[in-house]
Amino acid sequence: MNIKPVLYVVGLFLMLLGVVMVIPGTYDLIAEEGGGAGFFQAAIVTFVCGGVCSMSTRFTLFRLDPRQIFLLTTICWMAVSAFGALPFMFVEDMSFTDSFFETMSGITTTGSTVIAGLDQVDRGILLWRSLLQWLGGIGFIVMAVAILPFLKVGGMRLFQSESSDWSDKIMPRSGSIAKRIVGTYLALTLLCALGYWIGDMTWFDAINHSMTTLSTGGYSTWDASIGHFKSYWVYWNGTVFMLLGSMPFVLFVKFARGHTTDLFEDSQVQTLVGFMVALWVVMALWLTFEKDWQFFHALTLVAFNTASVVSTTGFALTDYATWSLFTTVIFFFLMFVGGCSGSTAGGMKIFRFQIGFKLLQLQLKQASHPRAFLVQRYNGQEITNDILRSLVAFSFFYGLLIALITMLLSALGLDLITSMTGAITAVSNVGPGLGSIIGPAGNFIPLPDAAKWILSVGMLMGRLEILTVLVLMTPSFWRN
Amino acid sequence: MNIKPVLYVVGLFLMLLGVVMVIPGTYDLIAEEGGGAGFFQAAIVTFVCGGVCSMSTRFTLFRLDPRQIFLLTTICWMAVSAFGALPFMFVEDMSFTDSFFETMSGITTTGSTVIAGLDQVDRGILLWRSLLQWLGGIGFIVMAVAILPFLKVGGMRLFQSESSDWSDKIMPRSGSIAKRIVGTYLALTLLCALGYWIGDMTWFDAINHSMTTLSTGGYSTWDASIGHFKSYWVYWNGTVFMLLGSMPFVLFVKFARGHTTDLFEDSQVQTLVGFMVALWVVMALWLTFEKDWQFFHALTLVAFNTASVVSTTGFALTDYATWSLFTTVIFFFLMFVGGCSGSTAGGMKIFRFQIGFKLLQLQLKQASHPRAFLVQRYNGQEITNDILRSLVAFSFFYGLLIALITMLLSALGLDLITSMTGAITAVSNVGPGLGSIIGPAGNFIPLPDAAKWILSVGMLMGRLEILTVLVLMTPSFWRN
Ligand SMILES: [K+]
Ligand SMILES: [K+]
């Protein structure tokens, strides 16, 4: 395999990353925060390394085959994490392990953090964390739009179910779709920031939080997370935009172009909204009657935190793991769910549950009426053998990966709850786990370095739909 | 639907159950244990009720359609649990809830118990518990042989993958197969009892434990379970026969008829044995080096307890949940695995993992070589859309059922570990869970009554491959 074109593109991405580092650097200079120099050093190192990488591998024929794209995707994400870690090292004197973890957690929009005392941290660093998540979120969507369909063109069955949403739409080339999606993403981010600002956040807090809300990332500028702002308006603004962040962005593009019904008629969106509302009612009533909470207060806290976990954002509003045993168990299972495909959210994704549920219904009908001929469709498409295979393979390895990471973490001496929820929260890109260490009120600092590296791999694999990374580890990938 | 033939068969089963109750009753009379009268009362009530049920619905045309068989299967299992509970009520004055739980746990070969102080309990009751598991075990295999293929004949896709082992064998009618399987089951039980007796068990203990070993049930006659017998011979005898109990019994029938290679060449058996040996080496080495255990001692304890959990037997040899965090996590995941299809074991079953793994391999190969044409086979059969659908439907609801039971248990005030492992251990028919209440050293007595009923439903659904019960809850089942 010729890896030169791969390195060329990776170099371009690093140069871009270097340029972005100038933003928090400049902010620090203007706000006299003291972190400016560190950012500019990091920017120069990153830009130069990227430049050298690109220049030395520049070539004319720019055609990538599927295998090169697989390699490119994984290497890009890893290189950005490695260089994106530099500001944390230069400005905050953090170790490479912690810096890499924080960056990987950022660009995969996971949001698990190893920084405590956010209230005292350099504000450029806070901005950098938000920027990483914002870029990671849009990077993920564009990847789903511009890269995955290309892999399909090459006969790729792997992402057929993921990208099938695209194939049947009358849309021009993916480049222009990508541009429109970026525009929509930017517009929604500004709207969200405006909402937060109206809720009495400062502009700095509003912009940071809107970037990490839309990207379903979940980094905050305060240790108390969103709970720092005592405002129902802020909480509901967050709830709405976290859910928007976990819906297919292509539908927003259509919405903006006048096709408003597509959004409301989308099967994933309907299921997501219906599921959330049902959940809110059950949990809010439970807390009202069992715990004597005031109903609207309960509803707000439930809505925000469940939206946070299902959208895989990971903001915490009070330590929800201490509410009650029943609600804790619900939060545990919500970590698997995830948002819609084509959004910034992680997790198993709504459509996989929908297909599982539809097949279950079909099986049950077939059982009592064996002679009936039933074909299963999803979103108008027949669920073919290919889609089923990919579904089984994905779900199977999703479970296996979580089991494997849980075992490795426990071998490092972590307890069952910490190991298991740590694995789930990483692979699903949620952010916080459960238990006293990494729960909503906790932090990932106390974990051993080895655990941070294991979780970094889990976050990366979870973000790249697992198989994209796994395929690099097979001998047949490297054979011609 | 005409439910008369269903009630007729259920009545026959109850009459048989009444007759079997005479065995522990007679034992109690001879051993002067005092429980005799209770058993005979229960036997009479059961026999008479069964007789009335049968006589009143007797009819000539005996033909059952698939829907009647579904209904029959579930009602049979429930009726046997209800009447099998009578001896516990009459002899030990247990509540109906506890008695029903203990019986359901018995005939589903789960082995979760609500009886403490086994060392002091009426010995006829101990024998009754073992008999319930032994009958449940053989009942489950015969069901897989004689009932599931019949459902398939009716166009039933549901169990195609389960029963496909049968269709391609040159075997006479299922009746004679069933007889041979019962013979093999009996022979293996006697062999196992002989092994335990050589290891210095009394005949009473040897026969009770061999019945609960072969059926992968796990009821013991002592509070310390198998750990009561301080004998490596006993432990290894148990390990071997628990694993035999979780292998396809049709292979033993063939083995006895001279086709010895079929057993060793079977894909499920190979995977099971290979997996166990690898697991033993890893865990025994871990305990030797990390915990300074003596190697052979560690190997024995690891082999016995992992075989116990994977075969879904549930005997405990020391409180393995306290060995170390790493091994506890392994035991947690082992609760899902289960034995081979066509055995007495529960769980997800080995072949489902094999298919998942094969599809994953296929996807990865296809990803890097998009133009290659790859067909996936399992045991020589192509993995068709039907099989995939049934696999997805089963696995999906397996997960959903565990999540649902976990939530219900936590709503009753049980902690996350107890709720979750309680749900898994019930649906997988393992027996013990983890945590301080229902762990290997614990007992299900402290659970609230509602939890016991919920777990009873879980055990039943797990045993009947879930969909068999679930289909009764769909409106289309009751429509013509
Ligand atoms: K997140
Ligand atoms: K069992």
Summarize this structure as a short list of keywords or feature phrases.
homodimer; mainly alpha; two-stranded antiparallel ribbon; 480 residues; 22 helices; binds potassium ion; cell membrane (chains A, B); globular; potassium (chains A, B)
List the helices and strands and how they pair.
The structure is a homodimer of 480-residue chains.
Chain A (H helix, E strand, L loop, with lengths): L3 H27 L5 H21 L9 H19 L1 H7 L3 H12 L15 H31 L6 H8 L6 H25 L4 H12 L17 H14 L3 H8 L3 H6 L1 H24 L4 H16 L14 H13 L12 H19 L8 E2 L2 E2 L2 H27 L4 H12 L7 H4 L10 H15 L3 H4 L4 H4 L2
Antiparallel strand pairs in A: 1-2
Helix pairs in contact in A: 1-2, 1-3, 1-6, 2-4, 3-5, 4-5, 5-6, 5-20, 6-7, 6-8, 6-9, 8-9, 8-10, 8-11, 10-14, 13-14, 17-18, 17-20, 18-20
